[in-house]
Amino acid sequence: MTGEARFDGIWVLRTNTAYPAATVAVQYKRLWMVEAMIRTTKAILETRPIYHKCDATIRGHLVCSFLALLLKAELEKRLEARGEAWEWAEVLRGLDNLQEVAAVFRGRRYLLRSQLTVHAHTAIRAAGVAVPPTIRAL
């Protein structure tokens, strides 16, 4: 066992590409991030377990999960470009707390938005979306 311990943390990759070894290694290490994002996305969308009965629904499920993964990765990239280094769970909590309710006051209808957390506000701005007004007349 002692002799094998010297190989802990060492792995071998074999590829049919012409990319440098460092590039291949970095891309391989990113796979765990993709797997983690898919698990997170499925948890967020509460898509587990889903039992599909036909190919079209399986494809639809995969497409939706992949699109969610792309959106998450893009938002994380934009947050990082702004110098924000939050945990994804913090961003989700902030966005989950964002609510909008319809109300009637003196015969007029309004939409009222909940107060934004710093995480939600920054995520919305990083996404390039206008922050919704606190009160909006309908």
Low-confidence stretches: none
> What's the pLDDT, averaged over the residues?
84
Query: How are the strands of the biggest sheet laid out side by side?
Result: 1-2-3
What percent strand?
A: 5-15%
Helix segment count? 5
Structural write-up:
This protein is mainly alpha-helical and 138 residues long. It has 2 domains: 2-81, no CATH class; 93-137, no CATH class. The protein has 5 helices and 3 strands; from the N terminus they run H-H-H-H-E-E-H-E. The chain has a 3-stranded antiparallel β-sheet, with no helix packed on it.
Name some characteristics of this structure.
elongated; single chain; 138 residues
Write the layout of secondary structure elements.
Elements: H1 2-5, H2 21-44, H3 55-81, H4 88-96, E1 100-105, E2 108-113, H5 118-126, E3 135-137
Helix pairs in contact: 2-3, 4-5
Provide a compact summary of the structure:
This protein is mostly helical and 138 residues long. It is 53% helix and 11% strand.
